Amino acid sequence: GDSVTQMEGPVTLSEEAFLTINCTYTATGYPSLFWYVQYPGEGLQLLLKATKADDKGSNKGFEATYRKETTSFHLEKGSVQVSDSAVYFCALRKNTGFQKLVFGTGTRLLVSP
Amino acid sequence: DAGVIQSPRHEVTEMGQEVTLRCKPISGHNSLFWYRQTMMRGLELLIYFNNNVPIDDSGMPEDRFSAKMPNASFSTLKIQPSEPRDSAVYFCASIDTGGSGNTIYFGEGSWLTVV
């Protein structure tokens, strides 16, 4: 079945460091890919998305590129802030049929001043 | 847009009591999901409605759980009787499958504690 694999956390960084959170997927066809973020005590918010190969999603300084050849959608940010501390979820969704989101296990990011 | 609205935001109840969680999807969205989040199991899809009809409820853990969607603007998830292991965050989400976007939007969750 379809699945998403994320790197284990927590990821601990100092402010202004470069961030990469790895995400790979397994799916038939060409799903849409998403990153959701969950801040402490809050719900899931869409951070960015990409709907086809080579698309780059970006938002709030975060970027991720849909790589079909490596089935990956790694999240990056050039300079993290303390306010970026949260749990990040990679997810896929088929574009036809039963269109549920399949989530990875989430990666906690901790940014210290 | 008001977003997906869930209530209650927080609930503490005693084991054996009935719990009802409520969700109002984004206006115009025709599909609705209920997810459960726990530390042990992460995010799990419980049930999915399309045009108010349950499409897949294979994720509902057992008969104590039931969900309804009487109309396009309201859904409930009921647990009767509740047990401590039901303690989790329950998210409702919605999408317009006929629209040009393909984004599922989540509510802020109902944080349930069963003691």
Overall description:
- The complex is a heterodimer of chains A (113) and B (115).
- With 113 residues, chain A is an all-beta fold.
- Chain A is 0% helix and 50% strand.
- Chain A has no helices and twelve strands.
- In chain A, a hairpin with a 7-residue loop joins β10 and β11.
- Chain A starts with a strand and ends with a strand.
- Chain B has 115 residues and is mainly beta.
- Helices cover 0% and strands 54% of the residues of chain B.
- Chain B has strands spanning 5-7, 10-13, 19-24, 31-38, 42-50, 53-56, 65-71, 74-79, 88-95, 105-106, 110-114.
- In chain B, β7 (65-71) and β8 (74-79) form a beta hairpin.
- The radius of gyration of chain B is 14 Å and the shape is globular.
- The mean pLDDT of chain B is 93.
Notable characteristics:
heterodimer, A: 113 residues, mainly beta, B: seven-stranded mixed β-sheet, globular
Give the helices and strands, then pairings.
The complex is a heterodimer of chains A (113) and B (115).
Chain A: E1 3-6, E2 11-14, E3 19-21, E4 23-26, E5 32-38, E6 44-50, E7 56-59, E8 62-65, E9 75-77, E10 86-93, E11 101-103, E12 107-112
Parallel strand pairs in A: 2-12
Antiparallel strand pairs in A: 1-4, 3-9, 5-6, 5-10, 7-8, 8-9, 10-11, 10-12
Chain B: E1 5-7, E2 10-13, E3 19-24, E4 31-38, E5 42-50, E6 53-56, E7 65-71, E8 74-79, E9 88-95, E10 105-106, E11 110-114
Parallel strand pairs in B: 2-11
Antiparallel strand pairs in B: 1-3, 3-8, 4-5, 4-9, 5-6, 7-8, 9-10, 9-11
